[in-house]
Specification:
The complex is a heterodimer of chains A (about 120) and B (about 110). Chain A has no helices and eleven strands. Chain A is mainly β. In chain A, the strands form two sheets. In chain A, strands 2, 4, 5, 6, 9, 10 and 11 form a seven-stranded mixed sheet that branches. A four-stranded antiparallel sheet of chain A has the order 1-3-8-7, with no helix packed on it. Chain A is globular and about 40 Å long. The N and C termini of chain A lie far apart (about 40 Å). Chain B is mainly beta and about 110 residues long. Chain B is built from no helices and eleven strands. In chain B, the strands form two sheets. In chain B, strands 2, 4, 5, 6, 9, 10 and 11 form a seven-stranded mixed sheet that branches. Chain B has a four-stranded antiparallel sheet with strand order 1-3-8-7, with no helix packed on it. In chain B, strand 7 and strand 8 form a beta hairpin. The radius of gyration of chain B is 13 Å and the shape is globular. Classes of the chains: A mainly beta (about 120), B mainly beta (about 110). Chains A and B meet through strand 5 and strand 10 of A and strand 5 and strand 10 of B.
Chain lengths: ~120, ~110
């Protein structure tokens, strides 16, 4: 069974930093593209970042470019999202999501809540 | 960016009803479209991929159709477990989602 378990969420002040982690199990992690997607009540679901299976391709949404960095460690079956210069509008539930070879998202973690507030 | 627009935003229906949700893309996404179901406090769950392909384990009362810029998700006979929010998702150019359609009990 595919399992994706996020950790590292919490409350942070504007301008602060946070690192999300996602532990993957139940599949060959190194064979899959991985993604971060966030959800807010106001803006709905928003793709944040993607990394290919070997980290050759990395993409970030314009809304987080220059502030967030996606990375992965295939030896540890783990996905990461380093979030710097956080803003109130980054407050959301962040999901770790597995991508298929044709790029749709087929498995989601349970989500990690990030709250940016003073 | 490709914008995805769903209609309606909210839909009231009864058990046994046939339900149709529409998703329109601001430009062609070919058949690179997926549908997800989300229940409160849970992650989205994949129902349909490539516009009309049913994900393994998803009941056959769910179906998808369309191509280009217009797509539909149909639930042939609404069941109590189907009251949830549904999202369309294009993966033709980067990734964007519709704003969601909440299916509620009439």
């Amino acid at each position: 069974e595919v399992q994706l378990v996020e950790s590292g969420g919490g409350l942070v002040k504007p301008g602060g930093s946070l690192r999300l982690s996602c532990a993957a199990s139940g599949f060959t992690f190194s064979s899959y593209n991985m993604n971060w997607v966030r959800q807010t009540p106001g803006k709905g679901l928003e793709w944040v970042a993607s990394v290919s299976s070997t980290s050759y391709y990395i993409f970030h949404a314009d809304s987080v470019k220059g502030r967030f960095t996606i990375s992965r460690d295939n030896a540890k079956n783990s996905l990461y999202l380093q979030m710097n210069s956080l803003r109130a509008e980054d407050t959301a539930v962040y999901y770790c999501v597995r991508g298929t070879t044709t790029r749709y998202f087929d498995s989601w973690g349970q989500g990690a809540l990030v709250t940016v507030s003073s | 960016d490709i914008q995805m627009t769903q209609s309606p935003s909210t839909l009231s229906a009864s058990v046994g009803d046939r339900v149709t949700i529409t998703c329109r893309a601001s430009q062609s996404v070919s058949s690179w479209l997926a549908w997800y179901q989300q229940k409160p406090g849970k992650a989205p769950n994949l129902l349909i991929y490539k516009a009309s392909n049913l994900q393994s384990g998803v009941p056959s009362r769910f179906s998808g159709s369309g191509s280009g810029t217009e797509f539909t998700l149909t639930i042939s006979s609404l069941q109590p477990d189907d009251f949830a929010t549904y999202y369309c998702h294009q993966y033709s150019s980067y990734w964007t989602f519709g704003q969601g359609t909440k299916v509620e009990i009439k």
